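pasting for ref
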Amino acid sequence: MEDTLAEVGRINRMLFKIIQDKTKVSEEQLNDVLNNKKDWFLTADEALSLGILTEIIL
């Protein structure tokens, strides 16, 4: 069980680093989502401004 928890923590840290390196999402925003265990819904414009999207096609 401890090995599984350690692996989950390691994977979360890897994902956080990738998200932070590739987008404008802050560590604080990621921690907020994780700590509150909630879904994070974004509009297309919000995703674009955070660097999650590169273009909105209409």
